[in-house]
Amino acid sequence: MFSSGIIPVGYLLELLNEPLLLKLFDFENYTWFQKTVVCSTASIKLVQAQDPLNPDHTFQWGLACQALAIGQSLGLHLDATNWAIPQWERNVRKRLSWALFMQDRWTALAYGRLVHIHDDDWTVKDLTPADFSDCECEGSTVTPGPGPGPDNHGRSIASTGIEQYMQMVQLTKILSAVCSNFYTARTCREQDTVTLLAKARPLIDMLTNWYHSIPPTLQMNIIYQRKLCFHGYLHFSYYGVAMTLLRRLVRSTALPPRCTDDRVLSDIRQIALQTAQSAIGFVTNLRPDHLEAFWYFTSPYLFSLVGSFTTLLLVTSLSYQERHFWQETLNSYLWTSASSR
């Protein structure tokens, strides 16, 4: 399409159909950093606009690589805390750095590709509320749902979004650990179930602790007055990471060397059972204001992952009763998914 291999910023913005960005993108008044930030942001948004279930995702994967290349050219993989730049620019850099990090990890998961950002080349510190000090927050009333909810009814949508963004970054770091420990070309060779379970237990504990640390303001029972509830993708991403980790363990039980430790097999099947049932229950209980809200770009893949994970448990069943249970569970999930479209 473009002989240079680089997509022009103007073309990206036209594809995105973002009037605000088009209006603000003034080459005469913008600094080089501001122009490049807009280009990198536009690249991320364009990648996320694509369907991760599309079998021909070479174009989207290429866009993700270009966005990462732009970010590395800007030095977004480096800690800019002590750089001689304005505070607002340090904040923007840090937020955009973690956006690129999440794009890299979740794109690799959805497309089954390699990650491009490696821990040895990443020095960006964790996000804090101070990194959003230059963001303006517009108020919106929040009311609790049937279960326990927040007491601060005046909490703004923007501040809640900031909190959710930071939670998503922490979850992505756990996903990164899962990918590096179980899904690289080297670690995929390990098939001993006992060894894999020992490696997985700390990550399972990290996931459990992360899930329990979700504040009340980000729970699924929140109801916004005349607004959509956008917390679904955060919780669904948690189930996605958990299933990604567990499917590696479940798969190993069906491959040589076969595990003969009944306790290990029972532990894996029990954790997988709880995770699959919780994920299916999550999908079943989604409200209309959940379904119509914003969902992260990997959400279509995660919906399919629930079905494929259930299928994996079906084909690796240890008894006829278990096989029948998972067959009925899968049929129910497929019916629920089809009827909610």
TrEMBL record:
Q: Which GO terms describe its biological process?
A: DNA-templated transcription; nitrogen catabolite activation of transcription from RNA polymerase II promoter
Domain Xylanolytic transcriptional activator regulatory, which positions?
60-133
**UniProt-recorded name of the protein:** Xylanolytic transcriptional activator regulatory domain-containing protein
Sorted keywords for this record are: Membrane, Nucleus, Transmembrane, Transmembrane helix
User: What GO cellular-component annotations does this UniProt entry give?
Assistant: nucleus
A Pfam family that the UniProt record links to this protein: Fungal_trans
Transmembrane ranges, per UniProt, are 293-315
The top of its lineage is: Eukaryota, Fungi, Dikarya, Ascomycota, Pezizomycotina
Q: Which GO terms describe its molecular function?
A: DNA binding; zinc ion binding
